[in-house]
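Write out the 3D structure for:
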Amino acid sequence: MENLGVDLSIIVPCYNVSKYIQKCINSIIAIEETFFKWELIIINDGSTDMTLEICESISKENLNKNIKIISQENKGLGISRNVGINHSNGKYLWFVDGDDYIDSSKVLKMLEYSISNDLDVLWFDHELVNENYNLIEKPKEDLKDTLSTNIYVGSIFLKEVFKKSCMVCMFLFKKQHLLDNNLTFEHGVYFEDILFTPICIDKAERVSLYNEVCYYYLIREDSIMRSRDK
């Protein structure tokens, strides 16, 4: 029987990322349409460059894809992600940054693993790239090769498996888990992921690691710590 629901909502807040947003969106719309269904929700957070125009152009060229574009005055990353949650229909949510990109070939297997194991939170691997999209060596503490891929209660996962990274873009979250625990992003704080992600994991009943690289995180030259509009 065909699954007519949305299994995955990919939420992309973007602010003045015209240089990067096309690669980001193209990596998402390359996901195959199979039994699993996905939607792309783009939150244009008051961009003053060509970000919105690029998003609208790609959307018009891909009318067969489930793409929503929401424009708002600049409110920051946390509120933009919350807007995405409120407009999402997916069983699972993935927060992707507008200057990063994903490995579309890994998404369906990652989603299947999450659904088949009824996970509340899934952690997956990533690579770092520079502005020429060449790989950058990851810090040793980011390496996941030796970590367990068993399913854990969230509090145990934090103690026995989880390492350094709290970046929300490297996780899938079951939407119902966020709703049941009233989990949203804080507004007006830097690195709100550091607050959001550990709480989501701690409150989860089923958490696991999918040890495949699914995400490419861009280290921008204009900031030491990856400057974001907040």
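The CA atoms of residues 16 and 47 lie 5 Å apart.
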